Every structure is written in structure tokens, then in C-alpha cells.
Amino acid sequence: MEDDKIKCSAYWPTEAGKFFTQGKIFVNTKKVESEEKFMIYTIELVPEGCSNSHVVKMIHMTNWPDRGVPQSGRHVLRLLRKVVADKLDCGPIVMHCSAGIGRTGCIIMIDVILRRLFAGKPVDMVEIFKKLRDQRAQSIPVDVLYIFVVVSVIDYIRLPFERLR
């Protein structure tokens, strides 16, 4: 629910031990963890007529308003760190928000910038933004989201130095 509008139904049970069938897929929430600004769900999916299950981890960021920004980019940086850490032992990453362009676009752009920094490659924010929009039309549709990306990257760069003081 955002702005008193239902944007997306929960397509997973929100409590551990609960399950339901979604179309031809049995959906079972095995575990729910609560962290500051996140809910982490471990979900088992079993297609009808199949004995093999797929276990997915879903991280639900709970403090990012639609068409707005969180108070701090540090929570987004924690989200990215968690996603990257979990990626080491699982499959592809799927990310979405209501329209798939605002919040999702920001997280993708921050991730691309940080990966380039880690690899020692140059970072051309305008070029990264253009490439993102080539692949995901209308990504980061408002100025405040672009500014949030920049501030989050600056926060990331500053964090290690602040810990040393």
C-alpha cells in the first residue's frame, strides 16, 4: 500500500510456516528475519507435479517511500551488501519496486557505480545513467532520486574514513 493505493499484493506468505498455492506453484515461507529497515524471507517454491523445490531469499526494504527517498542511503548500501553476500551461494538476483524504474533504478545505478569503483574503473555517472535508461526506460525519473544515488555513493566512500576517526 502506497499513497492509499494497493500497488502490489503479497505474492508470498508473510509469516514463517504459512503457505498457499499461487497458480500452479506451492509457495511456503520457511523463515522470516527482521532487520532494521528490512524483512528477509526464505521462501520455498514447488511447481505442481514436481518433487524438486526452489528456495529463494527475498529482501523487502520497508522504509523507501514511493516517489521519495529514504532518510539515509546507508540502508540501501546495507541492502546491496546483503544482496552481494547472499549472491555468492545462490542464483540470479531479481529486483523490483512498483514500476521498476525509481527505487529499482537507483539501486541498480548505485550497484554499477560501486562495482566500477571496486574494479578501479572510471565512473562516468552520466554515461551510466544513459546506459541504465537504454536498458530500463525512464529509470530514475525524478531529480531527487538521481541526487540520492550521488549522495549514497559519497556516503559509501566516506564510511571507511568516518570509522577511523
Q: What is the arithmetic mean of pLDDT?
A: 85
And the CATH topology of the largest domain? Protein-Tyrosine Phosphatase, Chain A
Would you identify the CATH architecture of the largest domain?
Alpha-Beta Complex
Question: How many strand units?
Answer: 4
Oligomer: single chain
Distance between the termini: 41 Å
Indicate the percent of residues in helices. 25-40%
Q: Shape, please? A: globular
InterPro entries: Prot-tyrosine_phosphatase-like, PTP_cat, Tyr_Pase_AS, Tyr_Pase_cat, Tyr_Pase_dom
Protein name: Protein-tyrosine phosphatase
GO molecular function: protein tyrosine phosphatase activity
Describe the structure.
The protein has 165 residues and is α+β, with helices and mostly antiparallel strands. It has 2 domains: 1-62, no CATH class; 63-165, Protein tyrosine phosphatase superfamily (Protein-Tyrosine Phosphatase, Chain A), CATH 3.90.190.10. Helices cover 38% and strands 20% of the residues. It has 4 helices and 4 strands. It has helices spanning 74-87, 103-118, 125-135, 143-164, and strands spanning 19-22, 25-35, 38-47, 54-61. A hairpin with a 6-residue loop joins strand 3 and strand 4. The chain is globular, with a radius of gyration of 18 Å. The N and C termini lie far apart (41 Å). The model has no long low-confidence stretch (mean pLDDT 85). GO terms for molecular function: protein tyrosine phosphatase activity. Residues 1-156 form the Tyrosine-protein phosphatase domain. InterPro entries: Prot-tyrosine_phosphatase-like, PTP_cat, Tyr_Pase_AS, Tyr_Pase_cat, Tyr_Pase_dom. This is Protein-tyrosine phosphatase.
